[in-house]
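Request: When convenient, would you put together a sequence paired with its structure tokens?
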Amino acid sequence: MDVHSRVERVRAALRDGDMLGAIRRLEEAREHAAGEAERLVVEVHTAAFRLAATHETFGRVPTAQAWAALEGTAGAALPPALRRRLELELRISDGIGAYDVALLDEAVRGALELARDDPGSLPTAERAVNNRLAVRIAVLERVGIAPGEPGHADALLAIGEALTLADALGARGTIDRRAVTAAVTMGDWPRAWEWAQRALESDALVPRERVGIATEAALLALERGMRAEARELGALARAAGAGRSAAWARLWAGTGAVVHAAAGGASMHSALGVLERAVEREQHRKLPHFALRAALIALEAGLPGDRVFAFVEQCLGVREGWPQPWRAVLEATAGRLEPERVSELDAWADGPAGAWQRATALRLRARLRLRAGSATAASADVVRGLRVLAMWEGARREALERLRARMLPQRAITPAQAAVLRLLVLGRTDREIAAELGRSPRTVETHVRALLREYGAANRVALAVAASREPFLES
């Protein structure tokens, strides 16, 4: 086996999320490297993949030393195509580390040009395209990529471009999963479902990616209330991950088992046990979102909080060490978060979280605010949550709509007053409202005075601001 084949084995382990396996294969590549050129190839990939070559020093590796070696005498002696490929591998890692989209754009262009003449560089081009998509989505998340937000259209363009390039490279799989995950983050249920189904039907989808996409599809089906499909896809995910060495694949498979149980296919207790046994506790701590997402699914499926929290403690240790705002979301879902701790949900509700995460936090925060008597703030959260889930079909949006229906009677407003209020929010004067509704100006003035009292507003402007947050205005 030559050095390039050994490097590709490292790359395959990384795609599986098998970090320790990747390190072992790097060590093998180093041991079998013949001559200075092959050793340089191994060292550059060690830095490019940001992996230390021993278990004791497992962690991030800076690329500066590899760049210096590549630009020195040993690098100059390499074949030009190989040297260019190694340069691109380092540039990709530098772009990922700095969240530098421009640097990754340059790496993608260079890798595609090289791939036309050097088929051996196709994995580098695939890595460039995949990681550029990941970074672009992460950058766009900061401005919001849910429907109607500034980054939504750009995110769709980025995904479409990446899928087109993946088709051209014959490298579907990893990028398909990235596209599905991005669509879920955007709150775009139809596209996420379409892309997941298309990927699962493809003969080109490798087993290590099938488990992840099957689990994402199972989650989408469960959200939509498609219980038979959720059971089938959850079982497919569990089967696709069976016997795989990578912790990443086993955790996806365990999540699939939890979805299968939530859809009525098995006992939730036993499904959580499958996930608990998937890897050791230390691996759960490195990838905590798997245990946390499974816990939320179990709570939403009706499993008692004590059992769910015991499961998370088994995976992640004591509750104080659970990452926020996950801990707050789980406690709120179980009815164990008090209104005075409502700010613990703000990071998801107001920050650059995924659409389903933000909508979940907004709904939970609205419920706590209602308990605290803040009906206006709760209404604003419900309205925002529904906007975020404008393209999301399923339980999360339905829960928000039920909450909105519960909140409508909070205001003692007659239909005639509601009609006046809608026009007042649009900036109409009393005379304009009277003319549009066919009422007298005095009647409109009477309604406005009643609305000012109901909202506790000092003037028409304050009334319009408060009322604009009310869900009934969008009905």
